[in-house]
Amino acid sequence: MVLSERKKKILAAVVDEYVRTAEPVGSKAIAQTAGLGCSSATIRNELAELVSLGYLEQPHTSAGRVPTPMGYRMYVNELMQKQKLSLEETEDINRRMNQKLRELDDTIDNVSRLASQLTDYPALALTTRSAVTIKRFDIIYVDANTFILVVMLSDNTVKNKLVHLPVSVDKRLVQRLSALFNSGFTGITDEQITPLLINATERAADDTMGITSVIAAFAIEVLSAAETPTAFVSGENRLLSQPEFRDPDKAHRLMGYLSGGGNLLPPDQTPADAGEIRVLIGPENVAEELKDSSVVIATYDAGDNTKGMIGVVGPTRMDYSTVAAKLSILAAGLSRRLGRGEAPPEGLHNKLIIKGDSNE
Amino acid sequence: MVLSERKKKILAAVVDEYVRTAEPVGSKAIAQTAGLGCSSATIRNELAELVSLGYLEQPHTSAGRVPTPMGYRMYVNELMQKQKLSLEETEDINRRMNQKLRELDDTIDNVSRLASQLTDYPALALTTRSAVTIKRFDIIYVDANTFILVVMLSDNTVKNKLVHLPVSVDKRLVQRLSALFNSGFTGITDEQITPLLINATERAADDTMGITSVIAAFAIEVLSAAETPTAFVSGENRLLSQPEFRDPDKAHRLMGYLSGGGNLLPPDQTPADAGEIRVLIGPENVAEELKDSSVVIATYDAGDNTKGMIGVVGPTRMDYSTVAAKLSILAAGLSRRLGRGEAPPEGLHNKLIIKGDSNE
DNA sequence: TATTAGCACTCGAAGAAAGAGAGTGCCAAC
DNA sequence: GTTGGCACTCTCTTTCTTCGAGTGCTAATA
CA B320, B322, B325: angle at the middle one, nearest 5? Predict the structure, then answer.
């Protein structure tokens, strides 16, 4: 059954109002705010129908109406006006993004922090699982007992590790190993790094001290870490400002779940296309702990076919349109800068300024 | 005035009991638990004196007693029995430390997570401010537009950054720059990296494209980031399981403060010696938000004269002895492994096992 | 002099009762 | 189909009462 225009308007009004006030919405309030020229009695009739259709519900017989998950779903899919953020707001987001992400690393924890700040909900940033391979493998010789492993992955992230060894290592061995690893270990996944391969490399390098194993272990570690989807959560505490989490136990449960960082988001779903916003409302979530919360997820392009995701968690009574709009901009910005694996022009510029003021 | 033995015992009993139950402690309860052979009436007299001495207080006239900050202080300084953790517990901590910190990075966020898990309070790990210099500077040439900067600092941490440039760079220029940076930028602090120095390097390398600036900017960034004391907080949500934070507003305030990650701990105090445990009780804290919470801080030796700190935050009604004992072990473990900047033997071993099972 | 038993008293927590108010459902009129 | 009117329902808030743990004090005891 398709909803009449008026029902849609009323439903939208209920959602808007409820999101704003967190109080069940009465017929009178709607009659006043939503500018349809009819009385509260008419609205009451409509509301009753919306209830029986499953879009709304009543906490108790003589209370206002509250959207059901199905109601929110309808709202998100059809009713909510794609919020246009004002120019200032957009600017602000971009500015903060530049500022925040210029510092050292645009690592996912920074991204999640930013998302949380912007939306004022807890946010989480996730890496997506995908086959990662090693693109480059370098070993920097520091001294006879020390070297630095530097691995560049196919997703353009670089990892390093400082290794101390109890035994001395010849500089040439290190170089040989470096070359061997670069030829043998690039372009393959962690599963392909078999003991056999390590043994072969070891023999080829004449490595009698097992350094190869240490390095290979690092390679495996990096690869599997990169493939394990990890989530960074920040701003858990913002949950507490939501009235639905005034109950400390409830808040604690969800926050604990979030900090656990487990597989929070639909693990089976393939990541959406970059730019796409996905909304999971209440029971649509797989995790039991999220069953009465909502999640908004934006996907961005992290370059080299990998996708990143930023999600925001809140009560089902969530300001979907604003959150979606903000995440959209954030995701777009991230795609822009990560997609090509380079810092944004401004970032570079700001740094370069130091060239100028040499008289100091 | 010095407390009589019995008063001490009673005070200790009050603290212990209150820590356990979070309820004001009555005279009868003490008469039963603390095995001093006297009746509740006697205890009442003693309690009344302890109140007038300032060690205890009453929430209201006809309630049990609760320790004041001064009472806790006395407890921590003199009464609390230095808790000996059982062998199993110690083992457990060490095992978890090995497990947790073996993964890729023993970074401070992992340390703080671990501390929080162990104590079941929110924990924060801090780096201490100290003059950091660059120990090594390497540039890995990836392709004409891409290279990886690898910087090893005096505190034995290694940072890297992938740099894309819009212009092509000659491989030899990169090598020359690498050499120049290694000679010019090692052993100096970020303040010593003046525009003059950059300019000189630039000219020496014949760098007309300003790559030097980009690299120098990274150097400065890394150095100043390393010198900025940062705090990593985890387990904020554990606050919520404490009855004193059942009020969401109160919890929110403190959690917000913690997540802010600001200068949480006595900024003026010089870090204690490694192994030392410091306890700040309620109003002893400088930060307004911590005035009715307590903080336990352990200092560990992070190698190369730098100290690290792990702190735990909780209500003043905190299990000081257990927390102190656990942090102690944690700090000792960290000193052991970070002090010499190497992975613990077990960690290495476990990795090396993969050598063995090549028949798979 | 220190300890103890006894007892009246205090004060908060928990429960019960009452009142207020927002909002509904339904009916009859338009 | 819409509207005003009205009785009804149910929660929230406030007020009052009760209950009980724990105290402080006094007088008796070792």
Answer: 105
CA distance A96 to A118: 9
**pLDDT tens sequence across A100-130:** 665 545 567 788 889 999 999 999 888 776 7
B236 touches chain A (CB under 8 A): yes
CA B39 → C1' D29, Å?
Answer: 14
* SS3 sequence of chain B: CCCCHHHHHHHHHHHHHHHHHCCCECHHHHHHHCCCCCCHHHHHHHHHHHHHHCCEECCCCCCCEEECHHHHHHHHHHHCCCCCCCHHHHHHHHHHHHHHHHCCCCCHHHHHHHHHHHHCCCEEEEECCCCCCEEEEEEEEEECCEEEEEEEECCCCEEEEEEECCCCCCHHHHHHHHHHHHHHCECCCHHHCCHHHHHHHHHHHCCCCCHHHHHHHHHHHHHHHHHCCCEEEECHHHHHHCHHHCCHHHHHHHHHHHHHCCCCCCCCCCCCCCCCEEEEEHHHCCCHHHCCEEEEEEEEECCCCCEEEEEEEEECCCCHHHHHHHHHHHHHHHHHHHHCCCCCHHHHHHHHHHHCCCCC
Nearest CB partner across the interface for A237, out of B162, B196, B252: B252
Question: Is the distance between the Cβ of B56 and the closest atom of strand D smaller than 7 Å?
Answer: no
Q: Is the CB of A229 under 7 A from strand C?
A: no
B164-189 pLDDT, tens digit per residue, is 888 888 888 888 888 888 888 888 88
> How many angstroms is C1' of C3 away from CA of B42?
7
Q: Mean of the pLDDT values across residues A58-79?
A: 93
DSSP, collapsed to helix, strand or coil, labels residue A199 as: helix
CB A313 within 8 A of CB A123: yes
Specify whether the CB–CB gap between B239 and B122 falls below 8 A. Answer: yes
Mean pLDDT of chain A: 82
CA–C1' gap, B62 and C9, in angstroms: 9
Which residue in A156, A210, A358 is closest to B352 by CB distance?
A210
Q: How confident is the model at residue A317 (pLDDT cuts 50, 70, 90)?
A: very high
pLDDT band at A266 (very low <50, low <70, confident <90, very high): low
Q: Is the pLDDT higher at A355 or at B44?
A: B44
Does the C-beta of B63 come within 7 A of strand D? yes
* B183-204 burial code (b ≥16 CB/10 A, e <16): ebbbebebeebebebbbebbee
Give this prediction's pTM: 0.82
Alpha-carbon span A260 to A255, nearest angstrom: 8
Give the Cα separation of B216 and A352 in Å (integer). 9
Q: Tell me if A150 and B150 make a contact (CB, 8 A cut-off).
A: yes
A29 touches strand C (CB under 7 A): yes
**Residue B224 pLDDT grade (very low, low, confident, very high; cuts 50, 70, 90):** confident
- Would you tell me which residues 297-356 of chain B have a C-beta closer than 8 angstroms to some C-beta of chain A? 340-343, 348, 351-352, 354-356
DSSP 3-state of A206 = coil
